[in-house]
Amino acid sequence: MVYLKHEQHLSYERVTQLCHDLFGVVVSEGGANVILQRAGEAAHPVAAAIGVQVAQSAIIGSDETGARVAGRNWWQWGFRSAVGVYFLIRASRGAQVIAEVMGEQWAECWISDCLSAQLKAPAQRRQLCLAHQLRDLPRLVFHQPRLQRAVAMQALFREAIHLGKRRAELSSQGYARRVSEVERRLADLLRQRVRSPEARRLRARYRLHRAHLIVFLHCSGVPPDNNVCERALRSSVIHRKVTNGFRSEWGAHAYAALATIIETAKLQGTVSSTHCLTSWGRRSCRSWPIKTRE
Q1: C-alpha distances out from residue 39 to 34, 103, 107, 148, Å
Q2: Which of 150, 177, 233, 285 is the most exposed, having the fewest neighbouring CB atoms within 10 Å of its CB?
């Protein structure tokens, strides 16, 4: 039931019809709702334990997307590390959500976009997502095709990403020399004058976050972008578009807890999400009051 609702994004009507037609299980829409509510309650402590493990990780990526809860605009937060993926759905997009997850923990490196709340995350270093920057620069080039500085900055970011991927292939001296060259070219581009307001705004952003642009070249294990968090949130975006959101707050919290378990199972790669839900459900949930057709 959880798999059909949360992974395949089916409505209650289609879930009950599918159970009847394929499995011979007669369950009402209200019964399906009760099953999901109980599953969410059983999933909360497991998801909370995953959240603690994620908060204790050295490298954490975070992203957020919109969510509709009881007709209101909420936010679904995603936190990903090497050990798991943790989701929360909250009414706020502020830094207090990150503080709720992290507690007293500090990450060695935080990977995110330029959202002000993300920039307040407790971390010793932070890496701005270069994929976001590579999406912003083409828009600037489109409006000003002759702006060669934007083209050069775009090429430099791509070269830096390529250099990070070749780190293991190069000698330590050769790699350090190439990183120094990237640093020098970046400094030169940021010193150049620009005229258009759009270019000045983008240059001001890069000057402000100069220390967070190419941290991945200096810290092994830090990716240059936050794409893994965006991919982890993709299923939730599809769920939102198909279902138009959650009718209740408990439904949103249950979805976040169950999505945490599913995505962590996918990340660890030990079992499929269906097997994970089946084995976890047998351990954690009571027998559902459903009637099987003979």
Answers
A1: 8, 27, 31, 55
A2: 177
Q: Helix (H, G, I), strand (E, B), or coil: what is residue 9?
A: coil
* Residue 172 domain boundaries: 130-217
Domains in the chain, number: 2
Neighbours of 159 (CB within 10 A): 14
Answer whether 168's CB lies under 8 Å from 118's CB.
no
Q: Which of 266, 217, 259 is nearest to 238 (CA)?
A: 259
Q: Are residues 9 and 46 in the same domain?
A: yes
Distances, alpha carbon 89 to alpha carbons 3, 16, 98, 105, in Å: 19, 26, 12, 21
pLDDT profile of the chain (294 residues), mean per 10: 89 92 92 93 96 96 94 96 96 95 95 93 95 80 60 89 93 94 92 78 87 93 93 92 91 95 88 55 47 38
Which amino acid type is present at position 243? T
